[in-house]
Amino acid sequence: MSIYLDNAATTFPKPEEVYRAADRTLRAVGVAPGRGGHSRSVEAARIVFQAREALAELLGIGESSRIVFTHSATEGLNLAVKGLVRPGDHLVTTSMEHNSLARPLHHAAATGVEVTWVQSDPAGYVTAAQIMSALRPETKLVAMTHCSNVTGAVNPVEEIGPLLRERGVRFLVDGAQSTGSYPIDVDAMQIDLFAAPGHKGLYGPPGTGFLYIAPGIELEPLLHGGTGSGSSELTQPVSLPERYESGTVNTPALAGLLAGVEFVAARGVASIHAFEMALVDRMIKGLAAIPGVTVYTPDDGRPRCAVVSFTITGMDPSHIGFVLDHRYGIAVRVGLHCAPLAHKSIGTFPLGTVRVSPGLFNTEQDIDRFVAAVAELAGTAR
Ligand SMILES: Cc1ncc(COP(=O)(O)O)c(C=O)c1O
Fold first, then answer.
1. Domain-wise residue ranges, the chain
2. Is 78 touching ligand 1 by the criterion CB < 6 Å?
3. Residue 68 Cα, ligand 1 centroid: separation in angstroms?
4. Please, which pLDDT band fits residue 30 given cuts at 50, 70 and 90?
5. By alpha-carbon position, which residue is closest to atom 14 of ligand 1?
6. Ligand 1 binding pocket includes 357 (Cβ within 6 Å)
7. Which pLDDT band, with edges at 50, 70 and 90, does 94 fall under?
8. Segment among 28-37, 92-101, 243-252, 319-328 with least mean pLDDT
């Protein structure tokens, strides 16, 4: 039987309810929400509204209409950066960013924005003090990941948010690896812009994501177009969420996302985190005991999410991934994980690491089989 340990890329499998909700919505509702006013369209709009409400409830967001659906975390991060930042602005970010944020920031830098890249420690952490000392009078935005998709390090966004709010600097958090599997309260953490995918820790279908935009923030939309509202005007509506949701949204996928969020809420994020950390502890203990294996994920009590990176001395990570897949039926992710700067920060560039990310559907037996496979493989390298 194959073992899936690449939940940081996307969670698999999804809960049964997610498959059922997407299927039912495509078959039985099947139409564009908020268009036409007929009862099917009203039912579709109700599903999309419920998905927004469920997300707001799970993430401590006061106004669900300020959650804008996107097709990925990447789209949300692009909307936040491109919608907010203008030439002459100064931004602060970190060396641990995924390309979903690093590339829009790098692109902004090419258009006259100044970007300061705060260097993480070798485990992938940055401190609130580091971020604060990178600020300048003209700093408009701090944009950073909550949890590293390479080492699993969780950054102190709850400390940074209030400090930035005091200074009047906007705070964009990439919640791709933490949403659904690490406790988050967006309002209490004083996060202004929060982007996340629906298809990772929320167990929704691929092609789902969102951006939360705090009151008082006006972003230039990425897209202009039909919203099903204000149709007499050629200008984009100003009300949310329509301002940022041009085009027909993917209602079947959002119905799946709603089912995923309900599944996560019923299980409880803290309990999901505890379950995953038990698997991560077991995995790190197993890997650390294998001669030739180096684990890059912190194991010193600092906060983490369910991502473990390792290498075997003398073996290319892509070879390890290939053998784990073909000989042992174990799916992991190898290489740079779309985060080259992070690998430079932890000293694993250019080959990268093997990344293993358990999810809610993994078992202790999965972890033991994986560790035994790595032990065998490492034995062949000696
Ligand atoms: C930290 C981080 N940010 C952003 C993303 C992008 O997410 P999406 O594929 O939904 O755009 C990922 C996905 O791997 C990620 O790990």
1. 3-12+269-381, 16-267
2. no
3. 17
4. confident
5. 9
6. no
7. very high
8. 28-37
Q: Is 177 in the pocket of ligand 1 (CB under 6 A)?
A: yes
* The ligand 1 atom nearest the CA atom of 74: 11
Q: Is a pLDDT exceeding 90 seen at residue 37?
A: no
Kindly tell me if the per-residue pLDDT of 312 is higher than 80.
yes
C-alpha of residue 38 to centroid of ligand 1, in Å:
37
Tell me the CA end-to-end span of the chain in Å, nearest whole number.
28
Which residues, 6+ apart, have CB-to-CB distance to 167 below 8 Å? 135
**Class of the CATH domain delimited by 3-12+269-381:** alpha beta
Which tokens belong to 96? 């641990």
- Answer whether 98 contacts ligand 1 (Cβ < 6 A): yes
**Closest C-alpha to 207, from 2, 18, 3:** 18
Per-residue pLDDT at 36 exceeds 90: no
Ligand 1 centroid to 16 CA: how many Å? 24
Whole-angstrom distance, CA of residue 74 vs CA of residue 304:
22
16-267: CATH, from 3.40.50.720, 3.40.1400.10, 3.40.640.10, 3.90.1150.10 = 3.40.640.10
Atom nearest to 76 CA in ligand 1 = 11
Instruction: Write the pLDDT tens digit of every residue in 182-236.
Output: 999 999 999 999 999 999 999 999 999 999 999 999 999 999 998 887 888 889 9
Give CA–CA dist 33/255, Å, rounded.
Answer: 12
C-beta of 100 in contact with ligand 1 (< 6 A): yes
Nearest alpha carbon, ligand 1 atom 7? 73
pLDDT at 308 over 90: yes
**HEC secondary structure over 260-288:** HHHHHHHHCHHHHHHHHHHHHHHHHHHHH
Handedness of CA 148, 245, 186, 276 (dihedral sign): negative
State in Å: Cα 98 to ligand 1 middle: 7
What is the number of the ligand 1 atom nearest to the C-alpha of 148?
A: 1
**DSSP assigned state of 119:** P
What average pLDDT is seen over the chain?
96
CA–CA gap between residue 130 and residue 118 (Å, rounded): 7
Ligand 1 touching residue 11 (CB < 6 A): no
- Residue 146 CA to ligand 1 center (angstroms) comes to 12
Q: Is the CB of 172 under 6 A from ligand 1?
A: no
